[in-house]
Amino acid sequence: xxxxxxxxKLGAALFLAAVLLLSIDWVSATIAxxxxxxxxxxxxLTLRRFFLRTWPxxxxxxxxxxxxxxxxxxxxxxxxxxxxxxxxDGSIDLAIATCIRVLAxxxxxxxxxxxxxPTDLADGLAQVVRLPHRFVIxxxxxxxxxxxxxxxxRAMSLARRARGLGDQHVLRRFLGMGFAMLVLSIRRGTxxxxxxxxxxxxxxPHRTWARESRFGRRDAALVVAVCLIAIAAIVTSVATGNWNxxxxxxxxxxxx
Length: 256
Description:
It comes from Pseudoclavibacter endophyticus. This protein is mainly alpha-helical.
């Protein structure tokens, strides 16, 4: 799975997220998360790298569940009520479903994007999805400049601090640095666009590519596996009566 086409990874992550967002119930999220954990074994990641990249999600999901537990919609038997805090059977079920659903949506996106190279993604979007190559190459060039943006911000902050301008008026300093970075970004973008045009980028309606991007059997297998995970989650949830279609107005409207 780690060597699959970036377009397949992107499509799989978006499709799974879209399906899981249709309902808020713990059954479909649990089934999807369990099958995703099996799929992660073929991602080519070590446990250390997996936890280093996914720890923000592993921390944010329980915090989201706790917030939903304390301030979610109250229904059923009330267990605790103190000011705005209302813990009931409904808020407990919603908190569990929300926590598992955050994990089921975010973890595949993080795992799939870990092994994506920006250049390979640009090649796939232009050659497989057939997006305009001028837009794809421009987006890739902009993405490559993100690291320079961070370095420029740090250098400018140190320079202003050395001049005695960085210790007071935090908001004014932030706005001044933001405007300076905007001017610098426009100048750098203009120079980069001129350089790319001089080298022939976008000169012809059809261009050649240094690396060919193909959508093969392994990529199709990844998409099919994700589709099966989504189908299994939906079927199990509907069969057990836990499907809670959001667009339909929740479980009450489905039952009616």
